Amino acid sequence: MESSDALIARFLALHPKTIDLSLGRIQRLLAQLGHPERRLPPVIHVAGTNGKGSTIAFMRAILESAGLAVHVYTSPHLVRFHERIRLGRFGGGQYVSEDRLVEAFRRCEAVNGGEPITMFEITTAAAILLFAEEPADVLLLEVGLGGRFDATNIVGKPAAAVVTSIGHDHAEYLGTTLQAIAREKAGIFKRGCPAVIATQDYREADDTLRAEAERIGAMPILVGGQDFSTHEESGRLVYQDEKGLLDLPLPKLIGRHQFINAGTAIAALRAAGFETFEAQAFEAGLTRAEWPGRLQRLNRGRLPEIAPQGCEIWLDGGHNPDGGRVLAAAMADRSERADAPLVLIAGMLGTKDSQAFFKNFSGLAREVIAVPIAGQIAARPAEEVAAIAASVGLTVSTAASVEAALASLHNYVWDQPPRVLICGSLYLAGEVLAANGTLPE
């Protein structure tokens, strides 16, 4: 049988010669498929620069803890394309099987008839087809890029539309100002449907999102820090909105930024009509949520065996300036609880603001070991990554791979075992999980 990888390679050949940001191509394809987008379970649509995946992970864990079947669509994948499509089952969903994925791809390819279409558009159509034909209680749908013209924005009336933290990324498509980026993300808001806006780091983004939600006629409009909030108190997470207060355990996902993501997830579920859950569902969801490659600790597998004994190894795909900021804050928090020298093993793409990313670690990281990202044409050479890190005052070296970087730690004399953060790219995170033998499940 032809593989999904072979079909994806064929899809790439259909890419339009010029990209016009529009929904025309996917609307045409979905119409030819019989409009599966009209047969979806209730949809919670999620856009944003950072925090989308974590917010969805919290929502999925809470919904599944309440006994519901949950479809999930996310991107990009870390190791295998199948990670993008989770089909809901009672007792917990599973990634789409190769057979079902190939079947959906073939149906979309046949109906498309060789017309120009992007890989993301045709694979999103395949996902929509699968979600429409498999019963579930809810679909958590993550935007791929932007919002207004993203291929996922074919949902007429979502149960809720959520925008997580806005920051600078993908300037070539979304614009160079926070206002322009926020306007694109706000394109998922729909008239008469709930709009949930996470607590924002930037006033310009917050103001733009609120204004766009009001202009579109979203209802109700729920704003983090105003209509709902979360804070830590005595080692617990306290969530509050007009419906009341929830006293919850701290999230399993590491970092204070996850308090905001958890609160946004709860607000979105309540806005979408899932407010009658027992408190146990929210408690279990926060403590069960997992999101691979996002401050994931590697306790087992091949890579910890290469590093010095007692070394902590953390993995995160964060790659933009704000991602670097929350990563640095999480590592600083970790250091306050248990001090250890911090070493970054970093690989980055040439399209990312590497200097702004590394600035967050100035005075915090003992050293940056720059590595290449295998198989990525757009990746910066390790020497270039090292030079950028050095330009903000960090001590640097290079290694041929993550494995070589970890092995090189044996050449140092440490007062105590180091804390290693492998970071800078989701592509690198996927490469690391594959090398470690701990694939996402």
Automatic annotation (TrEMBL):
Cofactors named for this entry: Mg(2+)
Pathway info: Cofactor biosynthesis; tetrahydrofolylpolyglutamate biosynthesis; Cofactor biosynthesis; tetrahydrofolate biosynthesis; 7,8-dihydrofolate from 2-amino-4-hydroxy-6-hydroxymethyl-7,8-dihydropteridine diphosphate and 4-aminobenzoate: step 2/2
Record carries keyword Electron transport: no
Keyword terms of this UniProt record: ATP-binding, Folate biosynthesis, Ligase, Magnesium, Metal-binding, Nucleotide-binding
Segments forming domain Mur ligase central: 46-268
GO term, biological process aspect, one: folic acid biosynthetic process
One Gene Ontology MF term: dihydrofolate synthase activity
GO cellular component: cytoplasm
Swiss-Prot/TrEMBL catalytic activity: (6R)-5,10-methylenetetrahydrofolyl-(gamma-L-Glu)(n) + L-glutamate + ATP = (6R)-5,10-methylenetetrahydrofolyl-(gamma-L-Glu)(n+1) + ADP + phosphate + H(+); 7,8-dihydropteroate + L-glutamate + ATP = 7,8-dihydrofolate + ADP + phosphate + H(+); (6S)-5,6,7,8-tetrahydrofolyl-(gamma-L-Glu)(n) + L-glutamate + ATP = (6S)-5,6,7,8-tetrahydrofolyl-(gamma-L-Glu)(n+1) + ADP + phosphate + H(+); 10-formyltetrahydrofolyl-(gamma-L-Glu)(n) + L-glutamate + ATP = 10-formyltetrahydrofolyl-(gamma-L-Glu)(n+1) + ADP + phosphate + H(+)
SUPFAM superfamilies found in the cross-reference section: MurD-like peptide ligases, catalytic domain, MurD-like peptide ligases, peptide-binding domain
Occurrences of domain Mur ligase C-terminal (ranges): 303-425
Coiled-coil segments on the chain, per record: none
Gene3D superfamilies associated with the record: Mur ligase, C-terminal domain, Mur-like, catalytic domain
EC number in record: 6.3.2.12, 6.3.2.17
Matching PROSITE patterns: FOLYLPOLYGLU_SYNT_2
InterPro entries: Folylpolyglutamate_synth, Folylpolyglutamate_synth_CS, Mur-like_cat_sf, Mur_ligase_C, Mur_ligase_C_dom_sf, Mur_ligase_cen
Task of the protein: Functions in two distinct reactions of the de novo folate biosynthetic pathway. Catalyzes the addition of a glutamate residue to dihydropteroate (7,8-dihydropteroate or H2Pte) to form dihydrofolate (7,8-dihydrofolate monoglutamate or H2Pte-Glu). Also catalyzes successive additions of L-glutamate to tetrahydrofolate or 10-formyltetrahydrofolate or 5,10-methylenetetrahydrofolate, leading to folylpolyglutamate derivatives.
The family this protein is said to belong to: Belongs to the folylpolyglutamate synthase family.
Protein name: Dihydrofolate synthase/folylpolyglutamate synthase
Taxonomic lineage: Bacteria, Pseudomonadati, Pseudomonadota, Alphaproteobacteria, Hyphomicrobiales
